[in-house]
Amino acid sequence: MPTIEILRSPLKLHGKVGVPGSKSITNRALLVAALATGKSSLSGVLVSDDTRYMVKALTELGVCIRFSSDTCIDIEGTGTLKQPCDSLYLGNAGTAIRFLTAACALVKGTVVLNGDEHMQKRPIHPLIDALNAAGIHATVPSSGCPPCQVHGQGSILGGTISVSGNLSSQFLSSLMLVAPLAKQSTTIKLAEDTIGALGYIEITRSVMNAFGAHVYQDDEKRFHIANTGYNTCDFKVEPDASAATYFWAAETLTGGMIDLGYSPSDFSQPDVAAHTLMQSFPSLPSCIDGAQLQDAIPTLAVLAAFGYSKVRFTGIANLRVKECDRIAAVHKGLNCIKPGLATIEGDDLIVIGDPELPTQARPCTIDTMSDHRIAMSFALAGLKCRGIKILDPKCVDKTFPNYWSELSKLGVSFSYA
Ligand SMILES: O=C(O)C1=C[C@@H](OP(=O)(O)O)[C@@H](O)[C@H](O)C1
Ligand SMILES: C=C(OP(=O)(O)O)C(=O)O
């Protein structure tokens, strides 16, 4: 398996980097534009594995999609989706497979949605259960994970649907995104009192609004969506806040100054909250509730290892069902850098900061478990400690294909093996 080693990094990182478009917003906008009737144009889109899978699948579902430049896409929707010739392959793109599963109820005929070996371990059964309860026949193997089959009738009814969002907020987003196309208005009830990652539901609502749909909430658990359909829209995708966390952390860790071209106030995504937390480094808060900024937890955990305090990360149980078990991966990676840097209690991760760490060579190889966020966050440790190698560096292609080249713009050099 290939590795990358951070050879040299300036003491303080200074310079300008580019942050790609938001994965979450790109994949929502792609679907919603595909479901509108007529031509929409998206700009600032992320072009990476996760969005390529979405584009390819939508094309296979009969949507006309064309890149008008590197980061601009024109989409011609017809307000419906056609049955694809083959099964849809979505790699390890959670947003793509979850959002398309509900959307495939609009297809007249059966659609099989599948992913790679990692996706085949990521649960989707709560979404399949919700679809069945709403009268849409869908199946999933006894593992509860893809491949799944949706037997669409060519239209969806709407009405009241209940869904559990404990394992992933994407199940609720998926049902919301397709609801404007139902025959009647839809009410989606959350099975729990609340869910983590509520910020992603806000993103769903805001993309839907931009394309003319209305989401009305009378309490935290009930979402009403009128059957307005979608309008076309010229839509600008904001940059990716999770991707930005690596540069905010690099700046914090090295005491440098990195220009991302955007300030934190430009981001509406939940992970922007990591920027505020980083301001107290090296004395990070003793307890960080990660429920609302889940994708930033690996970044914060690696940063915490270089801090003065002991930090307990709570509210992160569903990090176990992301691209890999991120609680286990971060724990293993930190202890591989130096035994004792992290422990696990139940689903909490505890990082014991060691301010002496930067002065030490720490030869080790981080097992990324093919997870882009493990690779990108452990690269931060390599900015301070010599000898850190990262397995499978190309896994960053999932959301940030230019990650290593953007880091090199700051004077960081690498060796590949
Ligand atoms: O809706 C979204 O765009 C996302 C929701 C979160 O996942 P879960 O809802 O599965 O926690 C997040 O981790 C993922 O990267 C993107
Ligand atoms: C969890 C993630 O992705 P997804 O669920 O969209 O595959 C992520 O990008 O950190």
UniProtKB/TrEMBL annotation:
Q: Which reaction does it catalyse?
A: 3-phosphoshikimate + phosphoenolpyruvate = 5-O-(1-carboxyvinyl)-3-phosphoshikimate + phosphate
| Chief location category | cytoplasm
Task: Give the active-site positions.
Answer: D295 (proton acceptor)
User: Pfam families per the record?
Assistant: EPSP_synthase (PF00275)
The enzyme's first-digit EC class, named in words, is transferase
Give the UniProt keywords, A-Z. Amino-acid biosynthesis, Aromatic amino acid biosynthesis, Cytoplasm, Transferase
**Keyword Transferase included in the entry's annotation:** yes
Q: What is this enzyme's EC?
A: 2.5.1.19
Q: Where is the Enolpyruvate transferase domain?
A: 10-259, 291-407
Q: Which InterPro entries match?
A: Enolpyruvate_Tfrase_dom, Enolpyruvate_Tfrase_sf, EPSP_synthase, EPSP_synthase_CS, RNA3'P_cycl/enolpyr_Trfase_a/b
- Which residues are recorded as binding 3-phosphoshikimate? K23, S24, R28, S168, S169, Q170, D295, N318, K322
**Which residues make up the binding site for phosphoenolpyruvate?**
K23, G94, R122, Q170, R326, R373, K398
| Protein location | Cytoplasm
Q: Pathway, per Swiss-Prot/TrEMBL?
A: Metabolic intermediate biosynthesis; chorismate biosynthesis; chorismate from D-erythrose 4-phosphate and phosphoenolpyruvate: step 6/7
Alphabetized SUPFAM superfamilies for the sequence: EPT/RTPC-like
Q: Report quaternary structure and partners.
A: Monomer.
What exactly does this protein do? Answer: Catalyzes the transfer of the enolpyruvyl moiety of phosphoenolpyruvate (PEP) to the 5-hydroxyl of shikimate-3-phosphate (S3P) to produce enolpyruvyl shikimate-3-phosphate and inorganic phosphate.
Q: Which HAMAP family match?
A: EPSP_synth
Q: Which family does it belong to?
A: Belongs to the EPSP synthase family.
The identity of this protein, by name, is 3-phosphoshikimate 1-carboxyvinyltransferase
Q: What is the lineage of its organism?
A: Bacteria, Pseudomonadati, Pseudomonadota, Gammaproteobacteria, Oceanospirillales
Q: What is the gene name?
A: aroA
